[in-house]
Amino acid sequence: MKLVKKLGLGLAILFLLAQLVRPERANPPAPTTLDAPPEVLSILRESCYDCHSNETHWPWYSHVAPVSWLVAHDVDEGREHLNFADWSSLDARARRELGEEIIEEIDEGEMPLWFYTPLHPGSDVDADELATLRKWAEGL
Ligand code: HEC
Predict the structure, then answer these.
(1) Averaged confidence pLDDT in the chain
(2) CB neighbours of 72 closer than 8 A, spacing ≥ 6?
(3) Would you put residue 109 in left (φ > 0), alpha (ψ -120 to 50) or beta?
């Protein structure tokens, strides 16, 4: 067999074997919806909820290794840092601090993560949306 063919076959087998390693992609129960004005909620839902809530949408490619590993990792880490499902259990100070961080992260272009926006049209937070979020965060 030609080397290229062997390599291709090897990669195909690796790819298939990788599918056996399936990360956890569960959505834990989401106790309450975030208590925020509807226009704020809709921005957060569209741009942040896939990684920062228990209401993640798992697209088809999130079931295909190795992408599945990366996606599951981001969701795990994202939820650890900020999970809107836990918002109602935070005290006023924690909410204010998180609100500030949310605005900062978006303002600096850190959030949503850079590879997320091209895959999810409309998830980019534009200036108007940021202004809406800022008003909400400053009132927390
Ligand atoms: C594709 C997944 C993903 C999306 C979408 C996403 N985030 Fe994140 N976010 C993460 C991950 C992973 C981390 C933790 C690692 C890091 O800071 O890069 C994080 C961290 C954060 C933090 C905490 C930073 C810190 O230093 O603790 C804030 C605040 C945040 N994100 C806000 C948002 C907001 C607001 C949106 C929507 C506009 C959003 N994120 C969208 C994955 C995501």
Answers:
(1) 94
(2) 23, 24, 25, 62
(3) left
**Cα(131)–Cα(103) distance, rounded to whole angstroms?**
9
Atom of ligand 1 nearest to the CA of 120: 5
Predicted pLDDT at 31 = 64
Q: If you take atom 24 of ligand 1, which residue's CA is the nearest one?
A: 81
Residue ranges around ligand 1 (CB below 6 Å): 47-48, 50-52, 74, 77-78, 81-82, 101-102, 105-106, 111-113, 116, 125
Average pLDDT for 82-104? 95
Residue 26's pLDDT is what? 82
Determine which residue's CA is closest to atom 29 belonging to ligand 1. Answer: 102
Q: Among candidates 120, 27, 110, 11, which has minimal Cα distance to 66?
A: 11
For residue 64, how far is its CA from the centre of ligand 1 (angstroms)? Answer: 23
